[in-house]
């Protein structure tokens, strides 16, 4: 007969610290990075620079929110950069052929949902590993974008409403940043306060157990990839509206930034555990590291190396020092 022991009861504050250790660690790392670049550069902590960072980083945060749900199901979506590029190119082509920007945007969101749904169907209903499906998707979708654009950048003209999405401001705050924050809040509410959010956590913890208790586990897995496709479509439209053009070469390396932001924020690659707040802090940390290194005039050839090393150290500290083994108070 199995013997069970009850965990020693601790104060609510210690319990809260233990439950949020990884989010707190990335928050501290974010503050440390801000202080570091503030001390070493004259322009980092200026309003103009910070607004520029959040404007350019909004697409990363939007897709990272959706990627958090994907990784919480123990999956991965390597095709997000290619979906962004395809949507980016398609939107420019449609508007160059006379479609208005509202119709184009709706069509692109639908296209993103279909692409994500197709990937989710192969993963959840055909049993193919997410890594394989999305790796193939990364190649296929980028290839389609290259084929339809023939490698050229497609300019977007006479669409002031569309340009406002990527370049406009509301009360001095860039519109893309406002959209990204709203999507992050929506993701936070869905994960914390809805039945669907709890089902995503359950499926990521143990898919078979979730299926046996009656949850539509396969559909839940499928749905997170569809959400990822929609988020990519929004990101692709924002990049096209900011740059005023569409290109198959957009969002190169985008998937690495997104996955790094999610992992840096404490979401487990094994599934079942994650935080939208942690992802938001992870995305902001990656963005300010890139921006700060540029302002410090670090060689662009070294920037990727330095960024990668910093991210690796941060993730190591987050998992080894503040991971599941980290507990304050008495052990029981």
Protein traits:
332 residues, mainly alpha, two-stranded antiparallel sheet, two-stranded antiparallel ribbon, 72% helix, globular
Descriptive account of the structure:
With 332 residues, this protein is mainly alpha-helical. Helices cover 72% and strands 2% of the residues. The protein has a domain at 57-251. It has helices at residues 12-19, 21-40, 47-72, 80-96, 101-124, 130-149, 160-167, 175-193, 195-205, 207-212, 217-243, 254-264, 276-295, 300-320; strands at 154-155, 169-170, 173-174, 245-246. It has a two-stranded antiparallel sheet. A two-stranded antiparallel ribbon has the order 2-3. A hairpin with a 2-residue loop joins strand 2 (169-170) and strand 3 (173-174). It is found in: Cell membrane. It is a multi-pass membrane protein. The chain crosses the membrane at residues 21-41, 53-71, 78-96, 102-122, 129-149, 169-190, 219-239, 251-269, 276-295, 301-322. InterPro entries: ABC_transp_permease (IPR001851).
Helix-strand layout with pairing:
Layout lengths: L11 H8 L1 H20 L6 H26 L7 H17 L4 H24 L5 H20 L4 E2 L4 H8 L1 E2 L2 E2 H19 L1 H11 L1 H6 L4 H27 L1 E2 L7 H11 L11 H20 L4 H21 L12
Antiparallel strand pairs: 1-4, 2-3
Please give a quick description of this structure.
With 332 residues, the protein is mostly helical. Helices cover 72% and strands 2% of the residues.
């Amino acid at each position: 007969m199995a013997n069970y022991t009850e965990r020693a009861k601790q104060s609510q504050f210690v319990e809260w610290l233990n439950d949020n250790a990884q989010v707190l660690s990335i928050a501290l790392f974010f503050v440390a990075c801000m202080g570091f670049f503030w001390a070493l550069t004259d322009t980092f902590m200026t309003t103009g620079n910070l607004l520029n960072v959040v404007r350019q980083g909004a697409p990363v945060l939007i897709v990272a929110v959706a990627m958090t749900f994907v990784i919480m199901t123990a999956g991965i979506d390597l095709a997000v950069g290619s979906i962004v590029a395809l949507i980016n190119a398609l939107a420019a082509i449609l508007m160059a052929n006379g479609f208005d920007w509202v119709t184009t945007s709706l069509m692109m969101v639908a296209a993103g949902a279909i692409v994500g749904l197709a990937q989710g169907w192969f993963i959840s209903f055909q049993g193919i590993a997410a890594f394989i499906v999305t790796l193939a998707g990364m190649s296929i979708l980028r290839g389609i974008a290259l084929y339809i654009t023939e490698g050229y950048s497609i300019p977007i003209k006479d669409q002031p409403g569309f340009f406002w999405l990527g370049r406009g401001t509301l009360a001095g705050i860039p519109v893309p940043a406002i959209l990204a924050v709203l999507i992050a809040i929506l993701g936070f509410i869905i994960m914390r306060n809805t039945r669907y959010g709890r089902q995503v956590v359950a499926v990521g913890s143990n898919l078979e157990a979730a299926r046996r208790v009656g949850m539509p586990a396969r559909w839940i897995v499928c749905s997170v990839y569809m959400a990822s496709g929609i988020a990519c479509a929004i990101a692709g439209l924002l990049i096209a509206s900011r740059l005023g053009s569409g290109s198959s070469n957009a969002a190169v390396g985008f998937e690495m930034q997104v996955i790094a932001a999610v992992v840096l924020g404490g979401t487990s690659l094994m599934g079942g555990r994650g935080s939208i707040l942690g992802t938001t802090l992870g995305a902001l940390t990656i963005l300010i590291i890139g921006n700060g290194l540029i302002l410090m005039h670090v060689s662009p050839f070294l920037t990727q190396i330095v960024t990668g090393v910093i991210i690796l150290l941060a993730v190591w500290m987050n998992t080894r020092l503040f991971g599941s083994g980290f507990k304050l108070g008495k052990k029981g």
